[in-house]
Amino acid sequence: TLTRDAEWLWKNEIPFLVLGSGANVLISSGLLEMVVLLNRANKIELLKSDQESVIRAESGAILASVARFAAQNSLTGLEWAYTIPGTLGGAVYGNAGAFGGDMSKSLKMAHILHRQSGRITLSVQEMAYSYRSSALKRAPGEAIILGADLFVHQGDEVEIKSIMDANVSKRKATQPGGASMGSTFKNPAGDHAAQLIEAAGLKGTRIGGVQVSPVHANFLINDGTGTPED
Fold first, then answer.
1. What is the pLDDT of residues 7-38, one digit of tens each?
2. How many angstroms separate the most distant Cα atoms in the chain?
3. Rounded to whole angstroms, how far apart are CA atoms 209 and 200?
């Protein structure tokens, strides 16, 4: 299991990283001197009481699948997550967000395996979220995310799916298809990375098999021949 493997690697001082779906990742063409754990823990379940509804999912679950699970159970609150690639673990780690929502607004509790403390839970306050960052991201290698509890509440299934479809349409209209790492650069305060790249005259620029997208300048598109060096 992910827990057993991580504990063994920590004990033996062997460097490792956990890879989810591989979305938004650029793999070096050089030697990677560490173990890569491929996370396939993807269980999703609904925890419901008189007080609240919570979706509990393992960190390897695809984020869009978690959002779809919510919609199928007429639960609102995760529509923003439907178009985001990658896994729940990556989203919790990096405070992923879109369409006015992000993990800092949806997370109730993260289930963590900590190198020193073992299995613990962190509240959204303890995750200390900031723009595309978290306490865990600012201290890499000290913990791995096993799963998370997400707040949802009862809604109308038709309305929920309508919002999700609208988000998909908007993303398709404003972002390029093809192979990319997603948005490459974080937005600086008070500005947008794509706007700055375009203002520098780099929109559409090509190096080897990689091009700054002419649709959205914060996407670097691989035409199938691009290399990490490009």
1. 999 999 999 999 999 888 888 888 889 999 99
2. 58
3. 21
